[in-house]
């Protein structure tokens, strides 16, 4: 009987390998090849005039990238933006999970409504808010004006907070969805046992639910940070990275280097550095989550 | 039976292939999407297919990208050697950038073409001694102003007195109001202050003007009229960068003074073409500097009822060197990778005829055509006469403005100058950054 079980398991593993081969081939083709091509580009002096014929330039592009003050300014913005957005999205997502979990357990279809902001393309989100927040034609400034609180959301003093606010409004549902799934996966028996031991309400959440959700919180935090760190669409639509370069993220910086300033090698070098940093962070996040779960 | 089926399938495949080969004889035009330009070009292409194209056994069809980052998408395709389009868009400010991916059309520039375009228009599509495109749309800048408000300012003694008091208080000189056609940049600033409610609570509009100060390269083109009127240019005759000059500083300060006085909407730092039109169109702004293309939109009473019949246009304000307006043309040229260049040239030759351009103008296009064609269509297009006149008298393209690095320069200026206007960097830093960048790119 045991031998039969081992046989079944070996067959499942073999099947899994076949499926994985197809997936790996797909990834190698769609992601691996462009990544390798970009790696070569980052070490070459290619240009639009000669996309395939650039010669080896060593570390020149990386040196140029690191020596450009624009990189550090954009990096600073992206880091601040990523940290602030990830922290607030996590906090809001968690709060929503604790508040709405009982309701959503009875009416799960409501989750779909909460996901709506996530389904809008970020560029369209930028266009929408450009209209909604416009001083003359926007709905929100008009109502605030009536209430005697005139706020210029896209003015130079507020635009930084506005782009953060839009990112949070759009992506908190993502954090919420993953955290909700983690909350719902906590066994009911555990909650009942905790209740028998006197842990109910806030104590239950603090001592039982939250510790069980920590690996998910870590992963969601890292994913949201990486995603916000490489923000492009809605900021590009709303501000173009300005005024000046106060809202220029690393992605916008790379785009402008590539298409507007024609320094393709430098732009790709920055992209490669960004990719390495993102992979490192994600790997670190995964390890931390696995270790936390193991404890 | 099986053999018969195979033979039938093979025959079908041969017929399909022959059909596809015939279809390959058609040419594809990648053109500027949306607005009157698209409507007009569609009409012209239909006319070509029904006349000259039919005679030459050639058919033209149009494809479009979206406007957002249009040139970046086209650059990526052209650089990759795409053959999806045979005719592609060109613009004065990037003809140098696209030249390596295009075939010059010098042989189309015959004496006959002067019956359609003045030499100055053809020059806007030239780079390194070659012509790369047939110009289709001219763009320059006007002052769009509220006639009702300016008329009252010029006739009402109480308003005149208030104007004098505000200019004395804010600018240190007592000034008299003038008609927009007589404005200097000082008058532009003074009138913007007068019509701003936070400065003059009696103003019937919220703001004097609306500046486009988003970090966007096209906004710099509007701004450069001020610089040029103070005698500024990108490069001198020796190719030396001339941004660190009084002309640029004075031009920059026109915007800075208005922004600091909040005589432009508080979110102007995120404004571009459409936002400025929206602000002016609500009737809450007295005047603005805007692209010539806006006229056709703003006269539509369905879109902008608040300003119906209330506004007019004139040239940009004057500086010590007179009146200047940055201008450029869009055009259509040949994709170097195309296999059908001869056919594509036939279409471009047709496009350059007086008949095609007359039709294009009547249908809403804004081509830089000769006076004879302008006059023929002027009754329905009053902006066209002023465009032709202003382009001839005041139009300029900065030295280096058609080079391969022009877009990079505009982008760098946008980043640094909008930073100065919005207080994130000082003027000296903005000018130094732009000078350093330009020195680097023009040294290559």
For this entry, give a set of tags:
heterodimer, A: 295 residues, mainly alpha, 77% helix, B: 444 residues, alpha+beta, four-stranded antiparallel β-sheet, 19 helices, globular
Indicate the topology.
The complex is a heterodimer of chains A (about 300) and B (about 450).
Chain A: H1 2-42, H2 60-67, H3 69-106, H4 110-114, H5 116-119, H6 122-132, H7 139-146, H8 159-184, H9 188-196, H10 201-229, H11 233-238, H12 250-260, H13 264-294
Helix pairs in contact in A: 1-13, 2-13, 3-8, 3-10, 3-12, 8-10, 10-13, 12-13
Chain B: H1 2-24, E1 27-31, H2 35-50, H3 52-55, E2 60-64, H4 70-79, E3 87-91, H5 95-98, E4 102-103, H6 119-123, E5 126-127, E6 130-131, E7 134-139, E8 141-146, H7 147-155, H8 157-171, H9 185-194, E9 207-209, H10 217-229, H11 246-260, H12 273-281, E10 285-291, H13 294-298, E11 311-314, E12 318-319, E13 322-323, E14 325-326, E15 328-335, H14 341-351, H15 354-362, H16 371-377, H17 382-394, E16 395-396, H18 406-421, H19 427-443
Parallel strand pairs in B: 1-2, 9-10, 14-16
Antiparallel strand pairs in B: 3-15, 4-15, 5-6, 7-15, 8-10, 8-11, 12-13
Helix pairs in contact in B: 2-15, 7-8, 8-9, 10-11, 10-18, 15-16, 18-19
What features would you describe in this structure?
- The complex is a heterodimer of chains A (295) and B (444).
- Chain A is mainly alpha-helical.
- Helices cover 77% and strands 0% of the residues of chain A.
- Chain A has helices at 2-42, 60-67, 69-106, 110-114, 116-119, 122-132, 139-146, 159-184, 188-196, 201-229, 233-238, 250-260, 264-294.
- Chain A starts with a helix and ends with a helix.
- Chain B has 444 residues and is of the alpha+beta class.
- Helices cover 48% and strands 14% of the residues of chain B.
- Chain B contains 19 helices and 16 strands.
- In chain B, strands 3, 4, 7 and 15 form a 4-stranded antiparallel β-sheet that branches.
- In chain B, a hairpin with a 2-residue loop joins β5 (126-127) and β6 (130-131).
- In chain B, α8 (157-171) crosses α9 and α18 (406-421) runs antiparallel to α19 (427-443).
- Chain B starts with a helix and ends with a helix.
- Mean pLDDT of chain B is 91; it is low at 16-24.
